[in-house]
Amino acid sequence: MNPDLNAALAALSTIILGKERQIRLALACLLARGHLLIEDVPGVGKTTLALALARVFGLHFQRVQFTSDLLPADILGVSIYESGPGTFRFHPGPVFSEVVLADEINRASPKTQSALLEAMEERQVTSDGTTRALPDPFFVIATQNPGEQIGTYPLPESQLDRFLMRLSLGYPAASAERALLIEPERRDLLAELPPVLSAARLRDAQVQVKAIRTAPALVDYLMALIRATREHRSLRHGLSPRAGLALKHAAQAWALLEGRSGVIPEDVQAVFVAVAGHRLSVAERADANVVAAEILAAVAVP
Fold this sequence. Notes:
Blueprint: H1 3-15, H2 20-31, E1 36-39, H3 46-56, E2 61-65, H4 72-76, E3 77-82, E4 87-92, E5 99-103, H5 110-113, H6 117-122, E6 124-127, E7 130-133, E8 139-144, H7 157-160, E9 165-167, H8 174-182, H9 186-191, H10 199-211, H11 216-231, E10 235-237, H12 241-257, H13 265-276, E11 281-282, H14 288-298
C-alpha cells in the first residue's frame, strides 16, 4: 500500500474505533473524487468521521446543519449590494470549502437539497449568471437519519445518484465501545491529530486512481453485474451507465488502497454494495443492500 495512504488509514482508525471497513470505504470514496452519504441513527460517529477525514488531509472544513427552514442561499452564498462602489458583491457560502458536511440532509426541503446538485456534479456554483469554481479537492459528506424518523424528506433519486457511496457505521463492537467510555473524548483526540497528507498529496493520489488498470475481463465482470441489476425480479430498474462508471472508479480507488496497479474482482466486490445499494429502485418490502448482495453472490467471476 502507498505509505501515505496507510498512514492516513492508521490515523483515522485512532479516532473511529472498530470500523476499519467503513473507514476504508470512506477513504476510497474520497480518492475516487466522489461524495459520501452516511445513513445511520444519531450518535454513532458520522460527524466525527467527517471531521477526521478533513483533519488527516489538512483540508478546510465546513459544516451545514440542514433544517426545514434552510435556504439554498445559506449553502451557496448570496450577492449583497454595497452602496460604496454601487455594485453587488458575492459572499460565498459554506459550499466553497474542501470538505462540506451536509448534516442531516434529509431534514431540509427538496428545494434546498437540490441546491447541492450542480456543486456535487460539476464542482461549480452558478449564481446571478456567474459560474464560480469550487475548491479542488471538493468532497461532500452528507448524513441522514433513517426515513422513518419524524421530520425527514426522502432524497430524490437524482440527488442520491450524486453520491458515489452510501454506508452505515452502526453501533461499535463491545471492545470499541468500552474504549470510548474509558479513553479521552474522540473530539479531544481529533483536535490533537496532525495532518498526515496535504491537499496536494491527496490530489496526486486521486490522479493515481485514474491510472489503475482495468483489464477487458474485469470490464466484462462489471457489465455482468450491471446487467444483473437490470434483470433482477425485485428491482424496478437497475444501474445506469453513470452508476457503472461510479463502480469502476470506486474499484480503482480500492485497488490503490490495496497497493495494486490493476483492479481485480475482489476490489469490485468490496465496493459493490456501497456503490449500488442506494441507486437501486426496489419493490415493496425489499432491501436494496440485501438485493445488491444477492446479485454479487449470484454473478460469476469471468
